[in-house]
Amino acid sequence: MEDLTLLKIELYKKMLLIRRFEEKIRQVYSAQDMKTPVHLCIGQEAIAAGVCINLRKTDYMVTNHRGHGHCLAKGSSPKSLLSEYYGRITGCAHGKGGSMHPVDPENGILGTSAIVGGGIPIAVGTALASKLRKDGNITVVFFGDGASEEGTFHESLNFASLKKLPILFVCENNLYATNSNIKSRQPNIDIAKKAQGYGLNGVVIDGNNVMDVYNAAKSAIEMLRDGQSPSLIEYKTYRWFGHVGPDYDHEKGLRGEEELKVWLRQCPLKSFVDQLLKDNILTLQQIDEMDNEMDETLNDAISYAKSQPYPDISELYKDLFYEGAI
Amino acid sequence: MPWTRVNIDEVSARDFLNKEGLRGISYKEAIREAQHQLLSNNKDVFLLGEGIDDKGGVFGTTKGLCDIFGSERVMDLPIAENGLTGIAIGSAIAGMKPIFIHMRMDFLPMAMDQIVNHAAKWFYMTGGRVNVPLVIRSIIGRGWGSAAQHSQALHSMFLSIPGLRIVVPSTPYDAKGLLIEAVNDGNPVIFVEHRWIYDYIGYVPEEMYTVKFGKGIIRKHGNHVTLVAISMMVYEAMKAAKILESQGIDVEVIDPVTIKPMDEELIFDSIKKTGRLVIADVACKTGGVGAEIACRAVEKVFNFLKAPIKRINFPDFPTPCSPVLESAYYPNHNDICSCIKELIDGK
Lengths: 326, 347
What we know:
The complex is a heterodimer of chains A (about 325) and B (about 350).
Chain A lengths: L2 H27 L15 H8 L7 E3 L5 H7 L3 H8 L33 H15 L5 E6 L6 H12 L4 E7 L2 E2 L2 E2 L9 H7 L3 E6 L3 H16 L5 E6 L20 H8 L3 H11 L5 H24 L19
Parallel strand pairs in A: 1-2, 2-3, 3-7, 6-7
Antiparallel strand pairs in A: 4-5
Chain B lengths: L9 H11 L3 E3 H15 L3 E5 L15 H5 L4 E3 L4 H13 L3 E6 L9 H14 L9 E6 L24 E3 L4 H14 L3 E6 L6 E3 L13 E4 L4 E5 L3 H13 L5 E5 L2 E3 L3 H11 L2 E8 L4 H13 L8 E5 L8 H7 L3 H13 L2
Parallel strand pairs in B: 2-3, 2-4, 4-5, 5-7, 6-7, 10-11, 10-13, 13-14
Antiparallel strand pairs in B: 1-8, 6-12, 9-11
Helix pairs in contact in B: 2-6, 4-5, 7-11, 8-9
């Protein structure tokens, strides 16, 4: 198969993993034994998949409270993440972090902040380290439209531009900060324009079209690897479910159902599957098989996570300070 | 021991150093020397801060280092304390050892989110997988009408944040050894310096050495009262102890050196001997480190206390500007003397 075909199948697999992973959490959440606040990214899968497929294992990736998809796309294991959400000792943060604080150093995820905008400067810092150490890595940081209102966003853009750091800022503009629409929070200016004001490349892309997502990220990342200026890509998208938890917002009267319906028609997976079928890249049967396989993998991961031991109470008092000092 | 000695004036410092044939440098030179040696010995160490490459070099503490090591390792910054603290944290988790320098401690509140929510929590939150070797140098200002926003000592604000070290060196020897230890430690360290003791001279070895955290020092032995003094107050405490000695009051002066971790055993042992506790700090009283030390003493050695615990602090007001108000604001050795005399007299 040609490279582009393989790439498209890989992209689809990544998106499918994220979608099914989040759906699985929705299914099990009502049992109330996954005791961690979950911020689902259903509806936004194309961005995580399309960006991260351009990254090397050693590249740094900084996510946020809505980070399940980013970690999966970067290569984190569903077992390690789910064990963490179930508060088990074998979770990626040994049961200390939960859903909002994933960590996976082997895949370039050095920890996660759940303070809005908090991870952006930290990502600039890993990019600074790459520049100072000349390690050839780049950093990608994901954040939402809400984070672009924080001071750290502006301070980070200024510094990254000033020092020409190898960093790609990815804004997933899903129109909402918790339940506040962007119209009540910002003047009607593209977030990408703000990046341009700091001398970065800033572009606006449809975040629900995975090939557009991929191509924009690819060209921005190639520029970084080539030592050129950092970029910000603003991907327009929509969060299908509540800010936190497994429910739809319209069921609670928080957002209108009409608005959701418009975005459901732009489902990033559905539109991509249609394209793959049309282009004869995958058959319906293959898609079904991939679906079943994914379901099995994730059922296994859930069973695995739930079978893992909880931390011993003594763990509460560990990991306050690093003790391996020279 | 020459390395635990506090010299309360330059003449006595010079006399002592000459007599013992020891090398003496100032507190600020000790800090500069530590950074110079750290930069020379570890390629991952770098300094960052607003104006640190200025000719003056942060009151002399970074003077000339940019010329030697270049602007990538002695990095001037935009004015963005919180963002740049995050950037320093990011560089630290990716293997660098940043020393972030603030000319005034008053600027740390702007970086509270990154210090409190990020640096302090990171190692724990990642289940011990990613540590943050970050040193934050901050300088307490005083005098010449510095007023409310350029003279605060905010070390106690960080006491209730698990995951931070808080270091309050009073001597040139400790300043150098603690700064090297802070960089080696691998955890976020709030390093608190006092501008008014920058020119104080003391014994400092030329080679690199470390002073361990959590180990206090008895600066003067005594039997009547335990006087715990923080940072610059160590000097006022030593002056007071000398005056009180001539009046037959024998003061034990303890410098905790680091307030987090705190060498509480050293303080408790002293209280068991003296039965009296006074704490002198360079900050406002309420919720301060003095309150913490007093509370721990009550919890652990209550039965040994013969008198109420006393605290010497700034009033619970912002620092005023006028020289008249400013001089009334800052307690000194005379205030310590009166406080201890009242305590001994049972007033």
